[in-house]
Every structure is written in C-alpha cells, then in structure tokens.
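User: Can you help me understand a structure? I only have the sequence.
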Amino acid sequence: MVNEGILEAMNPWEEAKQNVIAAAQSAQIEDDFVDKLLTHENTIQVQVPLVKEDGTKVHIHGYRLQHNSWRGPYKGGLRFHPQVSVDEAKALSLWMTIKNAVIDVPFGGGKGGLAVDPKTLSKSELEQLTRSFTREIAQHIGPDVDVPAPDVNTNGEIMGWIADEYGDAAVVTGKNIDGGGSEGRLEATGLGGVYALLEYFRLNNIDPATQTIAIQGFGNVGLYAAHFCEQNGIKVVALADSKNTVIASEGFKDVLTLASAKRKHGSLAAAVESLNIDAKVMPADAIFSTHADVLAPAALEAAVHEGNADDIKASIILELANGPLTIEADQILAKKQITIIPDVLVNAGGVAVSYYEWLQNKQRETWSKQQVFDRLEKQMITAVKAVAAVQFDNKVTWRVAAYTLALQRLQHSFLNKS
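Assistant: Let's start by predicting it. Here is the structure, written out as tokens:
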C-alpha cells in the first residue's frame, strides 16, 4: 500500500497534464490545441439536501466536472466519498477523455460525485440522497449530454435510482442487469486488460504459456484479470489484497473458488489456508518484488512509487488500475527498460462495455455475454495495434504512444467541429 505522505505529495491533475504535454511535444501538436484540451468545459457544483431518519437536515456537496465533448457525450464515474478532490476529479475526467479516444468510443470525459460516506447512511437515506442529487444535476446530464457510471462506493443499484429518477435508462451505465445493464460489465475491465496483454504478446512473438503474472488487488478487476489469465494459459503466481500477498510458484488453479473463499474468510491469506493451497503468505507490499514476467497493479492510484519501483523484477507492467504509477516510478522503470502498458489502454475495457450498454439502451436491444466479449476482444485488439503502430513509428514509450493516438483523434474531432 502507498503511504499517506506519497498520496499527499501527489497532484493527479499535474501528473495528468504532464502526460498530455509530453505526448503533445512528441507528436508536435500545437500549444493552442493542448491549452484547449487542458481546459474543462464545465464545472458543476451543487448542495444536495438530505433529511435523515432522525429528522435532521443536512446538505451534501456534490459536483460534476465535464472535461471534453469533442467526440461525444461526457462519460465517467460518480463516486460517493467524504474526501473528494477537485484536482483528482479534474485528472480523472481528463483521463476519461483520453481513454475514450484511445479505445475509440464516441464519448468525452467527465467525473463527479458526492462528498459523503455512504456507509454512514441507511439504504433509504442513500436512495433519497441519490435521487435528490439526480434532480440537482438533471439539466446537465442526459443520454446525449453526459452519461455517468459507477465509481468508488457506487454500484448498479445506485445507477438504477438515477436512471429511474431521470426517466431514461441510457442516462447512466453500470446498472444492474434487470435495470437495463449489460451482460459482461462485471468482468469487462479485467478481461479487457487480458485481451490487451495477449495482443501485446502476439505482436512481440511471446507465447502466453511461457509467462507468469503477479496481480496487486483482488477486487473485480484483479479477480477477473487473474481468471482470464488462467483461462488463456498465463500462470498466475502471486495475488495481493490490502492485507497480504500470497505466492504460489506453481500457479493458482481456480481463482474464482479462491475469491469465494476470500469472501467467506475475509482475506486471501485465510482463503488459501481454508482451501489447503500450497502458497506462501507474505506482507501486502511483497507483490512488487515477486518474481513474475508481468506485474499488474489493479488497486489504488500511486501503488508503485519511488519507494518500491526499484524492487520490481517484472519486465512488463500492465496498468489495470487508474494511475497506479507515480511519475517518479515511471522514470525509474524506464531506466530499468521495463515496458509499461498504460492504464488509458489497458483498463479501457470497462468503458468499452459501458458504451455497449449505452448502445443497447438507446437501440432497445439486449446482447448476450458472448456477444459483448466478442465485441470487446475486437475493440481491445484494434486499440493495442493502433497504439503499437504509434509506438513503433515514433520510438516512444507505450504511454506516450497511447496519449499521442488520443491527441491525434481528439484534434481530428476538434477540427471537424470547428
């Protein structure tokens, strides 16, 4: 886990800007265009009333940052968390703009939420607050304007309340299946990351069966990444949650069963013990020094930083989380000639399937899980090939290549709108 001092020192907005500027310089994109791209189109702030069950009335601060709409409606998550940060929201909304351009879906970027801990609210209070928030921002969102999605501490049920209050299922994505959600959304980010990794292997003539992977984070993203690695012959040799790293040199054989045991027993360490799996239990941060060909950070921002980047033994970093590397870590790993396949490409499977959900809602269609997976595989392969082409032609890092591709697509959209 990253320590508090590192988190405090980070400014995600400054880091996001630096990535854009570096790509723009590499691609010789005009400063005027970059200045426009680094300017948010709208910042919406509201005070949302909530009458609690004991009769007290409070107001909760809510916000929505709408970064860019050159390629389509704003798209991005709503998080309910007491320590919301404008700089973080600015960065994440910019990242969404970049990510949507890299994966080539017709959305821009947005981000927002409520400054509240939902765990302190009853279900009825949470629903009341969500519906009130929806009414406050209703004029700023819509299927063709701004399409929010789940994020930290929000879920399909909350998205369902927003859709119901607004009166159109296509106003949000990430809904429960019975509320208009898409099959495959749960697996999408982890599966998309594996599709990206497999295409990287194919382009570099690497046999997946010869590769091992260590995954930091065992929520939905890490779990399904591990599962689909398993399914495709990549040996999963280490997994980490917030408490421990568990290392199985022969590879984990059934991570779905392991996840079920973790839910029952509370931790990966307890889960491997309950299943009698031959695995070594280590501190959580041991994942970064594990011997594996690929390291996949799939948890928090800034998980890899100057304090642990030198410990990494993997030759490939697969950024399943948003912003898992600090700028300092990026520089350290570059000197070690470690390939970093960036978050704006690797974890774009989630927003791709959000796009499919939006399409299904607008077209009043329902696609099977296999249809969703087939479309996702094609979209991820196409995106990896496009980034690889930029990387090869310009002799830059994969991160710079991904941002360069996004900037080129955004510039094309901007010029066509002008």
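Now, to help you interpret it: Residues 1-9 have pLDDT under 50 and may be disordered. The chain is about 45% helix and 15% strand. Let me know which part you'd like to focus on.
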